[in-house]
Design goal:
CATH superfamily of the largest domain: Intergrase catalytic core
Number of strands: 7
Distance between the termini: 108 Å
CATH class of the largest domain: Mainly Alpha
Number of helices: 18
């Protein structure tokens, strides 16, 4: 029988740099820099391996012998003690990583690719409102389909659009956790969808003013910042966010170039300005502050609800976004505008991938004439 327990505590502490065998596969490795490490040599499935047991300064000789005995016992039973230790470590790390922490890390990794780097909180919003308040403090490894179903069940049919965003982004977070090496069920979202069933699909369109009534509404607007913004929104068929944050440096002659980060599709959009639109822009310039054409309080842009409030005060059910529908319906019913030109005017991406790959125009000249005709209608000029 090979001798064991060759070392003593004093010998282990005072030994010179080198390798010292305690017996039964336990070795003390002392380095020239003063460090020392316990190592056990074991055979796993016929393959010889070394497993670190910790430093001499933290693990005593007695503790090292006990750890070595445990590793040898696992190896004899066919268990790889190195992999088993790694598994326990991963489980411990998974328990330490809450869903809220992983979500924050996931958002930090993605925000540079989001519009305005996610500053509007739109990506995080559905998670912060409907998922994290109840599941945020749970270890991400414990997130399963039942927990997701319980959290999103109350809004699955009542607020299907919000629920869809929440569950899709939760899926992104779980895939991010898996990429970090955490033990998570990346199929939990798909399983939860199966439990929740198909959501009731309810399309809600923004109420819009019929295009024949747009001139009457336009004529009722004044020349304050909010009403000038509403005028330009109607004349350009743009989204309210694009109008509210409009800056002087985006204007070049009769063109308004909306930067990609402000566009819903993430692509720069050129907007031709009609004669009336140029008049509105010039009037807005007289009130511009800090570079914004439509400033609100403290020289910041008018708020997101300002244009909506204008219509509400008049007792109207229609909303600012609805003027895009007014414009599109006018194109279809009162003009012979080709579909791709009308859709481009709204900054919609139309056509299949192959068609888009060959398209090299934004129909600027055609849209310039179209927007002038729209302005003539809006201002009741004869076409």
């Amino acid at each position: 029988m090979r001798p064991i327990n060759k070392l003593t505590d004093r010998a282990a502490r005072t030994a010179a740099p080198g390798k010292y065998n305690d017996g039964a596969g336990l070795w003390l490795v002392k380095r020239s820099d003063g460090g020392a490490q316990w190592v056990v040599r074991i055979a796993i499935h016929g393959r010889r391996r070394e497993m670190g047991l910790g430093s001499l300064s933290e693990v005593s000789l007695k503790e090292a012998r006990e750890a070595a005995r445990s590793a040898r016992a696992q190896a004899r039973s066919g268990v790889d003690p190195i992999r088993e230790r790694q598994r326990r470590r991963r489980e411990a790390e998974g328990a330490a990583h809450t869903l809220a922490e992983v979500t924050s890390d996931c958002f930090a990794a993605r925000k540079s690719s989001l519009k305005n780097e996610g500053k509007a909180a739109r990506w995080m919003g559905p998670l912060e409102c409907h998922v994290l308040p109840r599941l945020g403090e749970f270890p991400v490894a414990e997130i399963d389909q039942n927990g997701i179903r319980d959290v999103l069940g109350p809004i699955w049919h009542e607020k299907p659009a919000v629920a869809k965003k929440a569950i899709e982004r939760l899926g992104v977070v779980l895939r991010h956790a898996a990429a970090l090496g955490l033990d998570v069920d990346i199929q939990a979202v798909a399983k939860a969808k199966a439990l929740l069933g198909k959501p009731r699909h309810e399309v809600r369109h923004y109420p819009s003013l019929p295009w024949p009534r747009v001139p009457e509404f336009y004529a009722s607007l004044g020349d304050g910042a909010t009403q000038l913004a509403m005028r330009l929104l109607i004349l350009t068929a743009a989204r309210s966010g694009e109008i509210r944050l409009m800056r002087e440096e985006e204007l070049s002659g009769d063109l308004w170039i909306v930067p990609a980060e402000r566009m819903k599709g993430g692509i720069e959009h050129r907007v031709p300005l009609s004669d009336e639109a140029l008049r509105v822009v010039e009037a807005a310039r007289q009130q511009a502050r800090n570079g914004y054409l439509f400033p609100g309080q403290r020289a910041k842009p008018i708020s997101d609800m300002t244009l909506t409030a204008l219509m509400k005060r008049r007792g109207m059910e229609e909303r600012p976004h609805g003027f895009r529908s007014s414009f599109r319906t006018w194109c279809a019913e009162a003009t012979d505008t080709p579909r791709e030109i009308a859709e481009t005017a709204l900054a919609h991406v139309s056509g299949g991938k192959v068609e888009l790959s060959y398209r090299r125009t934004d129909y600027l000249e055609h849209r310039r004439a179209l927007m002038q005709r729209w302005a003539d209608h809006v201002t009741r000029r004869m076409e």
